[in-house]
Design brief:
564 residues
Length: 564
């Protein structure tokens, strides 16, 4: 689709702005005769609009894909009837003759809303209707024809602004602009599966912009009657429960030809009355401030009803007051006691009854004094107990205050020292050059002592850390680069063989022994006893995957040579 008419459209809009400025200047220079009421303050009942319209089409006939073009020329007319100052109904007819390759005309009806202001009026509308659309002519082979004019559904949404001209008692306004979005659906019949000439058929879903300007003529005015006003007074405004109250309403601007209706409601007490006067019974009203609302109406239209409100206060009988609630002492030991003293009075010297409560422990007493028995508190901690002193008179009026007692628990006994891990002996693997991962006879003395330590500390665990010298570390590093290498490191094998000796020959539970590999440059296995609750000092070393390392039983050197 192409938008070729923007230059012409710019000229139209520039001309409309020039006319608007000229009219505004002329109105400002007009000698000052008494100005009539502006249409903004007294809006019209009926508006008739006529003017120029530009149609910016955006759509194609599918499935052929032939675009529509915009149409520079067009006329538009509308009529709006307003039900009130802001809302009305509207009918619009626009006609855009055939342009380069299309033509459009349509009629729609719907709702219009306006916002009258001083000299200007903003409006918006939404309409539904039908549109008659034909074409397109261009961009199709010469053997084919444009689509015939057809009627289809159309939707319109938009709005604009009117400037009230200062002539003829504001009879006319200049529509500075009206911008509408149009959606049009047209069905031109079945599309040709094998194009042979004639109309192509198909359908279009068109999005279009319609821009308009022109003159609006106003007829009639909406002059609402002055609204009904209502005020009410309450007498007396402050009472005790049971005292009567009278409410009187005064209405203004009532239509003498109609009989008004009165209604009364109140948030407190019982109100009765169906005229401009009502009575309130406060016997059942609790002390507080309440609102009474009056409503007068003479019809259902706006301005024919009004509300008024008034307030009244129901004062309570004077309650007893408690001046103090104290505890002596205010700090006690766990399970100790404190004397609670309350001081209260009644303005009318009514008999008073005392009661007490506490958030913890127990409190006893029904006079102005009581005793708090503190709760038991854990050693080394403290607790705050709140005691409430209550007083009530024979009318059920009450008051209360609180006192706070701090309860301290016994001191905490010193905690035993935390267990710590200890290093035991180290197993050396340097002596057997042929089998440097084997637990030899000389290692037995060390491991037997380790087994005795584990047996005497049944809740302790053992951490074994295997190490290898620098030469072995280089060999393991090269083997680790081989894809199918499964040979364990010498350090891991030494740790596994050491554990196997302790489990199989010394009967130590395997779950009590954890294996790691360290970084020391030595052919050793270090042993660390970790009592229950102690921190394992070698936990940061690398754990051994015991499933990947097979233990080699301890056998004498000569015996092993014979087996080979």
């Amino acid at each position: 689709m192409t938008y070729r008419p923007f230059r012409s459209l710019g000229r139209y809009l520039l001309a409309a702005c020039a006319v608007s400025l000229g009219v505004a200047t002329l109105g400002a220079q007009t000698p000052a005769a008494p100005a009539p009421a502006a249409s903004g303050s007294n809006p019209s009942r009926v508006d008739i609009f006529t003017g120029y319209s530009y149609f910016g089409a955006h759509g194609r006939v599918q499935p052929a894909g032939i675009p529509y073009s915009s149409i520079n020329e067009g006329a538009i007319g509308s009529g709006a009837y307003y039900f009130n100052r802001y809302i009305g109904g509207e009918v619009i007819y626009s006609n855009h003759p055939s342009g380069v390759n299309d033509g459009m005309s349509g009629v729609s009806g719907g709702v219009i809303g306006r916002l009258p202001m001083e000299n200007f009026t903003l409006f918006a509308h939404g309409l539904v209707g039908v549109a008659r659309l034909g074409g397109p002519n261009s961009d199709i082979p010469a053997s084919f024809e444009h689509e015939p004019y057809r009627w289809g559904p159309a939707l319109t949404l938009g709005g604009g602004m009117d400037y009230d001209l200062p002539f003829f008692n504001n009879r006319f306004s200049l529509r500075l602009f009206q911008a509408d979005y149009r959606y049009i659906h047209e069905d031109y019949g079945p599309s040709l599966s094998i194009p042979t000439g004639g109309a192509l058929g198909g359908r279009t879903n068109m999005d279009a912009i319609e821009l308009s300007t022109g003159i609006v003529t106003h007829f009639g005015h909406i002059i609402p009657p002055p609204p009904v006003t209502y005020s009410c007074s309450v007498s007396p405004e402050s009472v005790y429960p049971g005292d009567p109250i009278t409410v009187t309403g005064t209405a203004m601007n009532l239509n003498p030809k109609k009989t008004p209706t009165y209604n009364w409601t109140s948030t407190g007490g019982t109100i009765s009355g169906s005229s401009s006067t009502a009575n309130i019974d406060t016997k059942s009203a609790a002390p507080g401030t309440y609102t009474v609302t009056g409503h007068v109406t003479e019809g259902a239209k706006p301005g024919q009803s009004a509300d008024c409100t008034g307030q009244f206060t129901v004062k309570p009988f004077d309650p007893p007051t408690m001046s103090s609630c104290s505890a002596n002492p205010s700090t006690v030991d766990s399970g100790g006691s404190s004397a609670i003293t309350a001081s209260a009075m009644s303005p009318q010297n009514r008999p008073l009854t005392y009661s007490y409560s506490a958030t913890a422990g127990s409190v006893s007493g029904t006079t102005s004094t009581a005793t708090l028995t503190a709760p038991a508190v854990a050693a080394g901690s403290s607790s705050s107990v709140t005691v409430t002193c209550n007083v009530v008179d024979d009318l059920g009026k009450s008051d209360s205050k609180t006192a706070t007692v701090t309860v301290n628990g016994p001191p905490i006994p010193p905690a035993p020292p935390a267990p710590t891990a200890s290093s035991l002996c180290s197993v050396n693997f340097e002596r057997d050059k042929a089998r440097p991962e084997r637990v030899d006879n000389e290692a037995k003395a060390c491991l037997d002592d380790v087994a005795l330590s584990l047996q005497s500390h049944s809740d302790a665990k053992l951490a074994l850390v295997g190490n290898e010298d620098a030469k072995e570390q280089k060999v393991d590093a090269r083997l680790a680069k081989l894809k199918h290498n499964k040979k364990p490191t010498a350090a891991a094998a030494r740790a596994v063989n050491t554990k196997d000796y302790l489990v199989t020959e010394k009967g130590i539970d395997a779950s009590r022994i954890s294996l790691y590999t360290g970084t020391d440059d030595a052919q050793t296995v270090t042993t660390t006893l970790v009592p229950s609750g102690a921190t394992n000092p070698v936990a940061s070393d690398t754990p051994v995957d015991e499933s990947a390392v097979k233990a080699v039983p301890r056998t004498p050197v000569k015996k092993a040579a014979k087996k080979q």
